[in-house]
Here is the input.
Amino acid sequence: MDPFRELVQVMATLRGPQGCPWDRQQTHETLKKYLLEETYETLEAIDSGDPAKLCDELGDLLLQIVFHAQLAAEVGEFDIDAVCRGIVAKLYRRHPHVFGGTPVESPDQVVQNWEQLKCQEPANRERTSRLDGVPVALPALARAYAIQKRAARVGFDWENLSGVLEKLAEELQEFLQACHHGQAADRTAEVGDLLFTLVNVCRFIQVQPEEALQQAIHRFIRRFKRMEELAISLQFEWPDLSLAEMDRLWERAKEEVG
Here is the structure.
């Protein structure tokens, strides 16, 4: 038995009458949080650069897919073979430049063809807007990035980076005004506009905003932990530290850990 078929069989056994009580209790809804967790753990493994960790996390992610397929198979909806057949057919259909006679000249043209082919598929024919189809459950930064890319593909975009930066400065001024004079709803709206425009800046300079923010978080954690270590080594009591002293520790931590 090949490894994939063994995984499918193990999952079926775990869901069977003599299987695991926890596995037998699960539904598509209860598994949603695990699917999300495993996705993010896989992304973290990619960022770590550790092939062994990535291999392990891909296995955990694949388990979630097989688990959902098993639940569907038990009620006669579809099985893992249908999942595989569906994605294989989709890959053939959306790559006519590889499996057909459609020539392409660039990766951008591949993306354009891909979007056109998606719109022709039965599952997507009910879409009424070019922005339909971006998952609502995406993290907000990632969703903003995807929405902006969709709009840009049909020409609704800034001509250059300068235009986006001007818009960013405009949104910053509106945000500052809301901070001083606006209501809570105004501040929320202006923060949203500011973040959305900043995502546009990221798109123009080819930076993934979600990844950039994650890296900033990691840097902050790394520096803050070093601050705590320095405070201990210097025999400082954290509650007694002034903001100026914390700033000095922060600057030293930045120099030491980057």
Notes: The two ends are 50 Å apart (CA to CA). Residues 37 and 112 are 32 Å apart (CA to CA).
